[in-house]
Amino acid sequence: YLALDKIPTWRQHVNNTAPEEEEEHPISLCDKVSLYKGDITILEVDAIVNAANSSLLGGGGVDGCIHRAAGHFLYEECRSLNGCDTGSAKLTCGYDLPAKYVIHTVGPIARGTVGPSQSRDLRSCYETSLRLMEENKLHSVAFPCISTGIYGFPNEPAAVIALRTVRDWLKENTDEVDRVIFCVFLETDYEIYKRKMSDFFSPG
Ligand code: ADP
């Protein structure tokens, strides 16, 4: 498991400092976000977000990984939820995961091209997930790259929507949030986020 205090913030990432050797500075948005490459199911945070499908009954990709790691009780709870609309989100317990909760959100199906409705739906996934986190008094959350796998949303526009939506939310809710982790899995997404993060979360 990977505890939150072992995951560097974006400020620490940019300044190449370890989480332990944190200096004094006024808190800014770059202290509230992290870029982490790897498996979302090992993160010991209040909630991980699942890029689910509308049935909420499990599937491939990150959804399959989360269900395998959380165990059968997650499936049972999901079965009681009667699915979820695209762009919306529902909360469950985390069961065998180190994360306390799972926020299941349903991204738009894009198949390589994006129109305004897909962009709106993807933004809504991030917004409704963040709202659920706030309503349930959760303080740390990790997002996978929603819709960019099987659902075919192009990676770079998806990253920009993710970064902008989280940045805009954090501006309004700075004190309530400890950390939002962008959990990328593929090297291509890691490179895109590394390049784009400072456009949205610049230290100083
Ligand atoms: P969608 O159906 O919304 O496109 P996918 O699960 O197919 O969802 O892909 C979403 C992203 O999740 C992709 O970038 C994929 O590489 C990534 N992914 C797959 N497994 C994991 C995992 N264990 N942890 C984090 N991200 C993962």
UniProtKB/TrEMBL annotation:
The keyword Transmembrane helix applies. The keyword Translocase does not apply. One of its GO terms (molecular function) is ADP-ribosylglutamate hydrolase activity. Keywords: Hydrolase, Membrane, Transmembrane, Transmembrane helix. Residues 20-201 form the Macro domain. GO terms for cellular component: nucleoplasm. Belongs to the MacroD-type family. MacroD1/2-like subfamily. This is Mono-ADP ribosylhydrolase 2. The lineage of its organism: Eukaryota, Metazoa, Chordata, Craniata, Vertebrata.
